[in-house]
């Protein structure tokens, strides 16, 4: 009797988890549809989608933890029309450029039963996806000193250049830190903890200094990329609000010292019509939403500008003395 009740309780609990999972999946789908329907208020819906995705992920983890059935990673994509689509598993897609390592399990040359010779009649091949863990490496640069036996001249190779003069950081380490911080949004204090587990105690202040100096080193490259993108004959422009710390407001007793800034994005993407120029984006920060920022950013731009109905773009569409506008307007269909 007790065993039957426990089995029934486990069945009911599993059903509730599946129902919760379905509810979260439907809420997530509704939020995405709302984002498509109401593009103007997409920032709030975007945050809601992120929270729903986190909640759905927790539910899926709980279901997977209690699932003892063998995992079947099918070869097909989950159907977006199915209500339980998030519960389906898909076989991971791995690039053909990913290194492959062949591990052969050979039964030997003799039969274990009769001792006869074995011959190859085929093989069964399966794949196991694994990862090589990152590790720190110290490169010792030894500059050998030599002296000439005849004239006593000292000879030594010059020290190789470094991304940050006088720093211990190598180019691969700097690239990893920058990508982790700005692309993966991993704070420096967490990177400090990760590096400590790998055997390198790099203080947060040092990481901050490396990021700042690395940005200075990359400035010429950034300027070349910006000039190339902003010189395109077709640009997509948009902006989004961002919360900015302002200690002067807090010192004056005006709230928590947070005000609203603006991030402007200018994008070139010719992939829809197989254009020759690679896609790219330029981001510019502004203290407020005044039109002077847009006029400054696009001062040298010519061609077509696809953007929303922000009034700051109006002066860019006005005809110049020769009667032709500096930029032709291509209105955004989502606004």
From TrEMBL:
Domain of life of the organism encoding this protein: Bacteria
One Pfam family of this chain: zf-IS66
Domain Transposase TnpC homeodomain: 26-102
Region of interest (Disordered), residue spans: 68-102
InterPro entries reported for this sequence: Transposase-related, Transposase_IS66_central, Transposase_TnpC_homeodom, Znf_dom_IS66
Domain Transposase IS66 zinc-finger binding: 109-152
Domain Transposase IS66 central, residue spans: 166-335
Signal sequence range: none
Protein name as annotated: Transposase
Organism: Loktanella salsilacus
């Amino acid at each position: 009797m007790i065993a039957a009740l426990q089995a029934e309780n486990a069945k009911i609990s599993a059903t509730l988890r599946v129902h919760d999972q379905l509810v979260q999946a439907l809420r997530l789908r509704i939020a995405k549809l709302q984002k498509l329907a109401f593009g103007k208020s997409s920032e709030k819906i975007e945050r809601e989608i992120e929270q729903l995705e986190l909640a759905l992920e927790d539910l899926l983890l709980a279901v997977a933890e209690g699932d003892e059935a063998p995992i079947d990673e099918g070869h097909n994509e989950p159907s977006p029309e199915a209500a339980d689509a998030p519960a389906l598993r898909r076989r991971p897609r791995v690039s053909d450029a990913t290194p492959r390592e062949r591990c052969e399990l050979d039964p030997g040359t003799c039969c274990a039963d009769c001792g006869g010779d074995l011959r190859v009649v085929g093989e069964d091949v399966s794949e196991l996806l694994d990862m090589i863990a990152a590790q720190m490496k110290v490169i010792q640069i030894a500059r050998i000193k030599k002296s000439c036996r005849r004239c006593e001249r000292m000879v030594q190779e010059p020290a190789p250049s470094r991304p940050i003069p006088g720093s211990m950081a190598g180019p691969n380490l700097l690239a990893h830190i920058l990508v982790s911080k700005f692309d993966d949004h991993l704070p420096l204090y967490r990177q400090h903890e990760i590096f400590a587990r790998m055997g390198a105690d790099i203080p947060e202040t040092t990481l901050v200094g490396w990021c700042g100096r690395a940005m200075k080193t990359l400035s010429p490259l950034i300027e070349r990329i910006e000039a190339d993108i902003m010189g395109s004959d077709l640009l997509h422009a948009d902006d989004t609000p961002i919360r900015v710390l302002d200690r002067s407001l807090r010192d004056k007793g005006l709230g928590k010292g947070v005000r609203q800034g603006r991030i402007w994005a200018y994008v070139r993407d010719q992939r829809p019509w197989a254009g020759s120029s690679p896609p790219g984006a330029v981001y510019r920060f502004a203290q407020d939403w005044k039109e002077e920022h847009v006029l400054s950013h696009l001062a040298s731009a010519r061609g077509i500008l696809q953007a929303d109905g922000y009034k700051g773009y109006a002066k860019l569409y006005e005809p110049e003395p020769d009667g032709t506008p500096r930029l032709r307007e291509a209105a955004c269909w989502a606004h």
